[in-house]
MGMT family protein
Amino acid sequence: MAQDYNFFDNVYDVVRQVPAGRVTSYGAIAAYLGAKRSSRVVGYAMQVAGTANPPVPAHRVVNRQGLLTGKFHFGGNTMQQLLENEGVQVEENQVQNFKEIFWDPAIELAL
DNA sequence: GAGGTGACGACCC
DNA sequence: TGGGTCGCCACCT
């Protein structure tokens, strides 16, 4: 009741903290939540992220390889356009300099 | 009500 | 070193 803060909602909270021009991975979020094996759930969360309120910048979330796996779910090249609009270089559906712009919640949100 | 699927990732053989 | 399988939580049929 009150607020069923599930793993799902927790994912949204982390993704919303991802700054523009930076990207993160499903596993990084899952690992930050203490469930790196639940990376799949993170991906599913991104699917419903479009229906979440407030909307979650799912376009900043890519897989471990930096590939825009969810690009097709956005509908066309929307995901790539959004990333490039933020200054992220995308080539062949893959984020360039991925390790450089990689935003790790386990580190950035480390307190 | 139960089973299967899914934007992934890690572990096992 | 590489391929295959399991796991995890939520949503859909």
User: Anything to note?
Assistant: The radius of gyration of chain A is 13 Å.
